[in-house]
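Holo prediction — pyridoxal-5'-phosphate.
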Amino acid sequence: MADAERRDALRAGLQQVRTRIATACDSVGRDPAEIRLVAVTKGFPPTDVALLAQLGVADIGENRDQEARAKVAQVNAILDRDTRLRWHFVGQLQTNKCRSVAGYADAVHSVDRAQLVAALDTAAHRRARRIEVFVQISLDDDPSRGGVSADDAVLLADQVALADELDLAGVMAVAPMGSDADSAFAQLRDVSEQVRAHHPSAWAISAGMSDDLDAAIRQGATHLRVGSALLGRRSP
Ligand SMILES: *Cc1c(COP(=O)(O)O)cnc(C)c1O
């Protein structure tokens, strides 16, 4: 697809998502300026990331280290030096990937166990960078999707807060398949309140994807992770 044509498609996707954000904010009296849109670009080329950056998107999400690492380098080669993107790692993470992820990630949304806290802290120290951390909560205790149980969230948040090179941002969750998104995200908001009772600065809530970002906003999300609604369908 020609560059100009792709730019128009991304601009239209961005406009639609921004309209949904504004409408959902309006319905609950929130200010859209409180919401950070993370464009999840997995499966899409670095040229798309560069176009999104030119359209004003500042936050990019990826869910696999290998793809992300290559893409960050390719995007940096395309963009001029003044364009500073924030990279968010949102996928399930293994301890042996932490060193690589710490090489490019400004934020990790998927920290769900103590081992990962330690590995990421060590990696961040080696890379001399601070990393923002979201504690991922499992809202249905299905281990395949990752996440710590709501009961253990505060304990894990305490561990992140104690880590030298990590900044506890808040909590993250994916709504369970087939669940009512509003009630799932309301549960996440409860966990967020428990975490904030101990860590007042950890106010962020990463929730909401293409299909359920409206519900997430109604339930207090501060960070949306949106892929297909912006970029189109991923090829399988
Ligand atoms: C892919 C992905 C998203 C974005 O999903 P869409 O449905 O394409 O918006 C959000 N969060 C995580 C963790 C993902 O892996």
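READOUT: Residues 131 and 151 are 24 Å apart (CA to CA).
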